[in-house]
Each structure stands twice: as C-alpha cells, then as structure tokens.
C-alpha cells in the first residue's frame, strides 16, 4: 500500500522544477517589476545618460594622450553603471522587499532560497547590459569614443564587466543587511555610491586626485573596473598616464576576483530575510 501511495509523490517530486528553473522564472518577474517601477528605471538607466549629457555639454578639454575629457568620463560612467545596477540597486531594493514582508513570505514557500538570488542576478545582468549598450551607443555617436578593434580588447571588456558586475552584485546583497528598514536604505546607499564615483576616477581624471584619495579608491572595485574599461576604449598611449604607467590588467583581475570572493562570504554571513526590528 505504501508503495502505491509513494508513487504519485515521487512523480510529483520529479516534475517539480529545480532552483535554476525557478530562478530564471524569478528573473523574468524581477525584470517586469523593474520595468514597471519608475524610480528604478529612471535612476538606473536614464540617470547615467542624463549625467553624461550634462557633463559632456558643460565640460571640455583634454585628459591627455589625445583623449578628450568626455571620452575619459564616458568610460568611467560605464563602470558607474555597473555599480548602480549591481550594488546600488540591490542595496536599496532588497531592504524595501524585506520591510514589506516579501522575503519572509518567500521563505515560507517551497521555492529554494537560491532561486531568489538567481532571479536578482538575472535582473542585474540584463539591466547592466542594457545600460552599457545605451552609454556605448551615445559615446560612439556623440563623443567620438572608438569601439574595440581587436578580439583581445573585446575579451578584456567581457571579463572586466563580468567580474565587476559580479562583485558589485554580491556586495550589494551583503550591504543590504546594514539597513534596519527599507526606508533607511536609500540614505545609507546613495552617498556611498557617490563618494566612490568621485574618488575612483569617474568624474575626474584619477591621477589628478590627491594621493590619499587614490589610496582609498584603490581598495574598492569601482576604481579597478574603470581602469580595466579604460584599457579597452582609450588609446594604448594613455596607459602612461595611469598611476603605474600601465593598465595593470593582472591586478585588475586579481582585485575584482578577490572582491567577488569577499562579497560571497559577506552574503553568506550577513544576509537577513527579516528586519532587525
């Protein structure tokens, strides 16, 4: 009798979708929610475009090595877009979902917890790809930025972007646990992102910043993402204007990989499904 009863249960278990399948479905849902939430859509996709247009119209000049200041600035904004979609977006979005009880309800369902994070990762990857494509199209059309002309540079662009957005995503998930409530998340996250942009060579030429700022920025991933992207889109001669007078791509890979590992460990140790209160 028990065998007869167990057969339908076993068949149902075999038909139950796995964590990856559920995560991809969750990712599609995350993208729909993102597209329908105007603040996320405007801040993540349109705000970087607006900043490029404003700074491109207001500031002119040469960053050195035959590179205009706008071309230098656009490569930094592409890196900043990865920070916004990975770190800033998740560090604000997750606490809001936690405060609304969304995470607590998800924990009470049969869905594997990993599916929630897979969904977030899918959303970040798609949105960051769209953001990067928009900024690149604008830079090529209006500011004379040259696209990579070799397979090596495209490969560098791929691994710098992938490692960068992975590090930012993991750090955004970990940082989301610092906010006690969803209401506090924007005020805790936005200043951090802005400060990192100012000291990491996004709004200013990195070597023109004070030495102590450079040392602080070198500890965080944004500086290395921006430097890796400059190696892709700026002339080879510009490497002489970097701090080490080279692109240091090996160190870029090492630092970003280290932040991916550190971010994963922090996620495992700190992530919360309910508010501290």
What features would you highlight for this structure?
mainly alpha, 277 residues, ABC_2_transport, 2 strands, single chain, Transport permease protein, 73% helix, two-stranded antiparallel ribbon, elongated
Map the helices and strands.
Elements lengths: L1 H14 L3 H18 L1 H21 L3 E3 L2 E2 H31 L2 H6 L5 H30 L8 H25 L9 H15 L11 H7 L3 H13 L15 H22 L7
Antiparallel strand pairs: 1-2
Helix pairs in contact: 2-6, 3-4, 3-6, 4-6, 4-7, 4-8, 4-10, 7-10, 7-11, 10-11
Q: Could you characterize what this model shows?
A:
α4 runs antiparallel to α10, α7 runs antiparallel to α10 and α7 runs parallel beside α11. The protein is mainly α and 277 residues long. The relative contact order is 0.14. A hairpin with a 2-residue loop joins β1 and β2. The protein is built from 11 helices and 2 strands. It has one domain.
* Poorly predicted sequence stretches spanning 5 or more consecutive residues: none
**CA-based shape:** elongated
Total domain units: 1
Radius of gyration: 21 Å
Q: If helices are DSSP runs of H or I spanning 4 or more residues, what is the number of helices? A: 11
How much of the sequence is in beta strands? under 5%
A few lines on this structure:
Belongs to the ABC-2 integral membrane protein family. With 277 residues, the protein is mostly helical. It has helices at 2-15, 19-36, 38-58, 69-99, 102-107, 113-142, 151-175, 185-199, 211-217, 221-233, 249-270; strands at residues 62-64, 67-68.
């Amino acid at each position: 009798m028990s065998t007869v009863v167990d057969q339908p249960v076993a068949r149902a278990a075999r038909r139950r979708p796995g964590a990856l399948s559920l995560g991809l479905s969750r990712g599609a849902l995350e993208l729909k929610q993102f597209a329908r939430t105007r603040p996320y859509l405007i801040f993540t996709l349109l705000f970087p475009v607006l900043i490029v247009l404003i700074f491109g119209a207001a500031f002119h000049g040469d960053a050195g090595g035959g590179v205009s200041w706008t071309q230098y600035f656009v490569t930094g904004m592409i890196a900043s877009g990865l920070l916004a979609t990975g770190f800033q977006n998740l560090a604000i979005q997750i606490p809001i979902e936690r405060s609304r009880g969304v995470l607590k309800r998800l924990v009470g369902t049969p869905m594997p917890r990993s599916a929630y994070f897979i969904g977030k990762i899918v959303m970040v990857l798609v949105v960051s790809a769209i953001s990067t494509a928009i900024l690149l199209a604008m830079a090529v059309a209006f500011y004379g930025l040259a696209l990579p002309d070799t397979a090596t540079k495209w490969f560098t662009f791929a691994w710098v972007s992938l490692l960068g957005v992975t590090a930012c995503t993991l750090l955004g998930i970990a940082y989301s646990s610092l906010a006690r409530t969803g209401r506090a998340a924007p005020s805790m996250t936005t200043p951090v992102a802005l400060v990192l942009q100012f000291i990491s060579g996004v709004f200013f030429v990195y070597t023109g910043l004070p030495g102590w700022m450079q040392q602080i920025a070198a500890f965080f991933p944004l500086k290395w993402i921006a430097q890796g992207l400059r190696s892709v889109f700026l002339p080879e001669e510009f490497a002489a204007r970097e701090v080490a007078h080279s692109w240091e791509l090996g160190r870029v890979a090492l630092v970003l990989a280290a932040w991916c590992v550190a971010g994963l460990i922090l996620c495992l140790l700190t992530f919360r499904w309910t508010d501290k209160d």
